From TrEMBL:
Keyword terms of this UniProt record: Amino-acid biosynthesis, Cytoplasm, Glutamine amidotransferase, Histidine biosynthesis, Hydrolase, Lyase
Species: Thermomonas aquatica
The gene coding this protein: hisH
Cell compartment(s), UniProt: Cytoplasm
Cross-referenced InterPro entries: Class_I_gatase-like, GATASE, Imidazole-glycPsynth_HisH
Main location: cytoplasm
HAMAP family per the UniProt record, alphabetical: HisH (MF_00278)
Function according to Swiss-Prot or TrEMBL: IGPS catalyzes the conversion of PRFAR and glutamine to IGP, AICAR and glutamate. The HisH subunit catalyzes the hydrolysis of glutamine to glutamate and ammonia as part of the synthesis of IGP and AICAR. The resulting ammonia molecule is channeled to the active site of HisF.
Name by which UniProt lists this protein: Imidazole glycerol phosphate synthase subunit HisH
Gene Ontology terms: biological process: L-histidine biosynthetic process
Domain of life: Bacteria
Oligomer and partners: Heterodimer of HisH and HisF.
Coiled coil: none
Biological pathway: Amino-acid biosynthesis; L-histidine biosynthesis; L-histidine from 5-phospho-alpha-D-ribose 1-diphosphate: step 5/9
One Pfam family per UniProt: GATase
Length: 200
């Protein structure tokens, strides 16, 4: 399952995500062609910045329809995970609706800085092959101000002012709020698990 397409929705982390897969021996193709996306064996939707421009880019090229019609494993990263959900409070924009729930701004407090930037511990909340070889309490790197709390699809959670989903999975859909491409051995293992993943 090495035919991986990284979807170009305007995210600035395309190169680092591609390099992370290259370190695993996989050379993904970056594309915004719906036909190429439809033919892929694995799809990755990275994103940094804000949900509204990512969704605008996806809709402009018909990529939202291509992702909904696909039957292959899809991994969203950071904003790419957030737009898998029904709606984001950031810009009050509708997402892809592939997962149930709403993305909300993390609560501000005197000792809680936003955006949330840095390493956080990951706590397992569901069983998934995506977590094979990842210890409970392992750390990953985050950069974001919005998250999904109380998701029934959370397989990892962490907290920064409030508890939110660090990774999700349902059917063929998976997401990482953290940046696996910047999370060392833990991130590499998560991506390897995605490459080997057979959704149930």
């Amino acid at each position: 399952m090495n035919d991986v397409v990284i979807i170009d929705a305007g995210g600035a982390n395309l190169g680092s995500v591609r390099a992370a897969f290259a370190r695993l021996g996989v050379e993904p193709e970056v594309s915004r062609d719906p036909a190429r996306i439809a033919a892929a064996q694995r799809l990755v939707l990275p994103g940094v910045g804000a949900a509204a421009p990512v969704m605008a880019n996806l809709r402009k090229g018909g990529l939202d329809r291509a992702l909904a019609a696909s039957s292959v494993p899809l991994l969203g990263i950071c904003i790419g995970m957030q737009v898998l959900f029904e709606r984001s409070e950031e810009g009050n924009v509708a997402g892809l609706g592939l997962l149930r729930g709403e993305v909300r701004r993390l609560p501000a407090a005197a000792d809680v800085r936003l955006p949330h930037m840095g390493w956080n511990r990951l706590y397992k909340r569901g069983a998934s092959p995506l977590l094979d070889g990842i210890d409970d309490g392992a750390q990953a790197y985050f950069v974001h101000s919005y998250g999904v709390a109380g998701s029934e699809d959370a397989i990892l959670e962490t907290s920064h002012g409030a508890t939110f989903a660090a990774a999700v999975a349902r059917g063929r859909i998976a997401g990482a709020q953290f940046h696996p491409e910047r999370s060392g051995a833990v991130g590499a293992r998560f991506l390897r698990n995605f490459l080997d993943w057979t959704p149930q």
